[in-house]
Design a protein that fits this description.
The complex is a heterodimer. By secondary structure, chain A is an alpha+beta fold. Chain A has 3 domains: about 230 residues, FAD/NAD(P)-binding domain, CATH 3.50.50; about 100 residues, D-Amino Acid Oxidase, Chain A, domain 2 (2-Layer Sandwich), CATH 3.30.9; about 55 residues, no CATH class. Chain A has 16 helices and 20 strands. By secondary structure, chain B is an alpha+beta fold. Chain B contains 4 helices and 6 strands. In chain B, about 40% of the residues are buried. The chains are: A alpha+beta, B alpha+beta.
């Protein structure tokens, strides 16, 4: 397809989050004219994550990342816990190897993202904060002359080609638009590239950042120096609603939150803030936060659909990256989004570069993005864990399993002057008293083995 | 330690309030008929929505944290929700 009117930029990126900043930076490094538009007062002002960032990918983009970027702590301790009302059973994995090389860091996005936007500016990107993109501009894809009519996007992408963006009264044109506007991605939905997601593909995360002295954090979480801990919790913490809770250590604060699946939350008629309060007040969670002061309260819609949610990520003149493309991954042990944002942005920048060089920015011309993403470790992980979301929807995960494991351990640890039985017999008895059935255990075990 | 109330939590955040324009609009009839009203009251972490004694849903748009959860659970036509104008709304300092 031939180019029509001379655009203002090679690429317009909408949204200065991780995906948008990395894409803009990489494209500027290729020598492209790039505009990065952000609706917040500054980059990061609208952005919120849990947030553990698996950092190897972003270190490849910015070799000085760990030393220069405002990261919080380097994760060397991962805990995964079944939290019941009055008991708790978990895996506590702490390993110095996770610090050398560094594998994951905690971040606070209102601090990290301005650094990324600054890197973009240094690379030559025009950064425009405080501007909301209302819609993308489209033209009839078959129009071959410069007088093709420009319209606000319709509901059907069929035959339409994205040629720029509209923000208020301003129209800005580019050869390619990158939709990096987050999980709600209004612009990709408006142009018909992406559809409204079913509720089982979405969760709401509610988070508090609680300030605590550095020494208190290190003592409570068994850390030294800039080491950090990531605690993932399932079970009673969400009052049985599908989802989980988390505690992540920052330098001098703790990020604490819950993430609950919207289909289950609405079906159970629970109030999301009650679920969060219940977690904060839990006898095994509250002590971590004792004496802390709330620094900020926030929330975020989370894509949980995995591979099923990805769908189309390119059309004539536009690609979607990061959360906007539904790129998140919950494997039960690791919860990922920001590293996938980096990987998709790197792939998109390569794909867009090739399309610009060949002067074909149609969907076919941009196909390199999809190919490169799914050839990357991140894209392959999306496929590997394609069955994980359906597995994690099994409701037994959020109530009965934690109680069963605690009952088995209680049988082992509570020396009540009765003669001991072998552990297997204790476990059988606990299972008999649990609402769980052996066939459910077998079914979940097989499904879990395949999905995770 | 008793958790803070939602308004106490929100008071810790920084907001640039758009005095001229609300970014949220509830269609009361559809919200009531579809159950969207109760659903958005329950799912909003900022308690933007409240059910009034007459059954209508009131909107405190200034408190919005802009997650989009309400729009995700709303029935078609029950809720108009978009981002505030550029530079307005919540401005995270931690994130």
């Amino acid at each position: 397809m031939t180019e029509t009117a001379e655009p203002d930029f090679d690429v317009i990126v909408v949204g200065a989050g991780i995906a948008g900043c990395v894409a803009a930076y990489q494209l500027a490094q290729q020598g492209r004219e790039v505009l990065l538009i952000e609706r917040g007062e500054a980059a990061g002002a609208k952005n919120l994550s849990g947030g553990v960032l698996y950092s190897r990918g972003i270190q490849e983009v910015f070799p000085g990342f760990l030393d220069e970027a405002p990261v919080e702590r380097r994760i060397t301790r991962n805990c995964v816990t079944f939290l019941n009302a009055t008991s708790s059973v978990g895996i506590d994995y702490q390993d110095t190897r996770l610090a050398d090389p560094v594998n994951a860091v905690t971040v606070l996005r209102a601090k990290l993202d301005p650094w990324l936007a600054e890197k973009c500016e240094e690379a030559g990107v025009t950064v425009m904060p405080g501007v909301r993109v209302d819609r993308v501009l489209t033209e009839d894809a078959r129009a071959s002359s410069a007088n093709g009519a420009v319209n606000g996007a319709g509901k059907d992408a069929g035959g339409r080609r994205v040629v720029g963006v509209q923000a208020g009264d301003d129209e800005l044109r580019s050869r390619v638009v990158v939709a990096a506007d987050g999980v709600n991605s209004f612009i990709a939905q408006d142009v018909g590239l992406r559809q409204k997601q079913p509720l089982n593909h979405l969760a709401v995360g509610v988070k508090s950042v609680v300030s605590l002295p550095q020494e208190t954090i290190e003592a409570r979480f068994n850390l030294t120096g800039d080491e950090g801990a990531a605690l993932a919790v399932v079970g009673d913490c969400t009052e049985g609603v599908g989802g989980g809770g988390f505690l992540y250590t920052n330098t001098d604060s703790v990020s604490v939150g819950v993430v609950v699946r919207l289909d289950d939350l609405t079906a159970q008629g629970k109030v999301v803030t009650d679920v969060f309060d219940h977690f904060l007040e839990h006898r095994y969670i509250a002590p971590y936060l004792e004496g802390g002061e709330l620094a900020e309260y926030g929330c975020h819609l989370v894509a949980e659909g995995g591979m099923k949610m990805v769908g189309e990520i390119a059309m004539d003149g536009m690609v979607v990256v990061g959360d906007a493309a539904g790129l998140t991954l919950n494997t039960g042990l690791t919860v990922r989004g920001m590293d996938l944002a980096v990987a998709s942005a790197v792939a998109a920048a390569e794909g867009i570069g090739a399309a610009l060089d060949s002067k074909d920015t149609s969907k076919a011309g941009l196909a390199g993005y999809r190919e490169k993403f799914f050839a990357s470790y991140a894209g392959q992980d999306m496929k590997t864990y394609a069955k994980a979301p359906a597995f994690l929807e099994r409701e037994r995960m959020y109530k009965q399993y934690g109680e069963l494991v605690a009952d088995v351990l209680y049988g082992a640890f509570s020396l009540d002057t009765q003669p001991r039985r072998h552990l297997l017999s204790v476990a059988r008895r606990a299972l008999a008293h649990s609402p769980l059935k052996m066939r459910q255990l077998v079914s979940d075990g097989i499904a879990g083995g395949r999905a995770l | 330690m008793k958790p803070l109330s939602v308004p106490e939590r929100l008071a810790k955040n920084r907001f640039n309030l758009d005095e001229e324009e609300s970014h949220i609009e509830v269609n009361q009839e559809i919200a009531k008929a579809t159950g969207t009203g109760r659903a958005i009251v329950a799912c909003c972490p900022a308690h933007v929505y409240a059910e009034e004694p007459d059954g209508t849903i009131s909107v405190e748009y200034a408190a919005c944290l802009e997650c989009g959860t309400c729009l995700a659970v709303a029935a078609p036509g029950a809720l108009k929700w978009h981002y505030p104008r550029g530079g307005f709304g919540v401005q995270f300092r931690e994130g």
